[in-house]
UniProtKB/TrEMBL annotation:
Keywords: ATP-binding, Nucleotide-binding. It comes from the Bacteria. SUPFAM superfamilies: P-loop containing nucleoside triphosphate hydrolases. Residues 6-229 form the ABC transporter domain. The keyword Nucleotide-binding applies. The gene is yhcG. This is ABC transporter ATP-binding protein YhcG. InterPro entries: AAA+_ATPase, ABC_transporter-like_ATP-bd, P-loop_NTPase. Pfam families: ABC_tran. GO terms for molecular function: ATP binding.
Length: 242
């Protein structure tokens, strides 16, 4: 029976006097690739960290796969932060072995397939990888777990278009929608669009809109851009739409 994989119930998150999320409620079904879009400071990363159990809400409840999203929810969630998280002195192979040793759901065979797909040299030190190479390795590590929920925070930020394209192709090629849901925050709206099933639009810590991409295309044609401009405003300048 289908159930909501992620549920936010009147969730707010404050940092001192700053409100990052403001009374947010939504549900996400399993088996989807879901984009979270919004200007800088809209609450995208906070939403992901709450889902991963890395932050606790100031008020409200976050439920993932039927369980409260706390630190122990890491068995249900594979989280890729925007910042580099891998030990720089490891080789690529050592990074894979390390993840395999700490996560019981890590699929080493899938990781090796993804390394080949991404043309990552297994003997190279992480520290010596290009920025794009480091992101691709982080994607490999996050997506090689069999956790039902994968969270990717700004994986395309600061990369050139060819690298972004290869990362999106890898995302599409290696996500199994019968087993996993992916939630991805991004500014690269037009490039990630072909991979998305659903979109959450955030602004000033509130959900402005949540909809299926198919519904949006039915109303706005073949692109999310016009929809995005309508729900977030034409001056959402930090979003890249070209």
């Amino acid at each position: 029976m289908n159930h909501n994989l992620v549920q936010f119930d009147h969730v707010s998150k404050n940092y001192m006097k700053e409100i990052a999320l403001d009374d947010v409620s939504f549900q996400l079904p399993p088996g989807k690739v879901i984009g979270v879009i919004g200007p800088n400071g809209s609450g995208k990363s906070t939403l992901l960290k709450l889902t991963a159990g890395l932050l606790r809400p100031t008020q409200g409840k976050v439920i993932v796969n039927g369980k409260p999203a706390k630190r122990r929810i890491s068995s249900e969630v594979s989280y890729m932060p925007e910042q580099d998280g891998c030990y720089p002195f490891y080789t690529v192979t050592e990074a894979i072995k390390y993840y395999n040793s700490i996560y019981t759901d890590f699929d080493e065979g899938k990781a090796k397939e993804m390394l080949d797909f991404n043309e990552l040299s297994r003997n190279q030190e992480v520290n010596n990888l290009s920025k794009g190479g480091k992101v691709r390795l982080k994607m490999v590590l996050a997506m090689s777990r069999r956790a039902p929920l994968i969270l990717l925070d700004e994986p395309l930020a600061g990369l050139d278009p060819m690298i972004r394209d290869s990362i999106i192709k890898g995302l599409v090629a290696f996500v199994d929608p019968s087993e996993q849901t992916v939630v991805i925050t991004t500014h690269e709206v037009s490039e990630i669009e072909p991979a998305l099933d659903m979109v959450i639009a955030l602004k000033n810590g509130k959900i402005v809109k949540l909809d299926d991409v198919e519904n949006i295309r039915g109303m706005y044609g073949d692109s999310l851009i016009e929809w995005m401009k309508e729900v977030l405003g034409p001056n959402s300048s930090s979003l890249k739409t070209e």
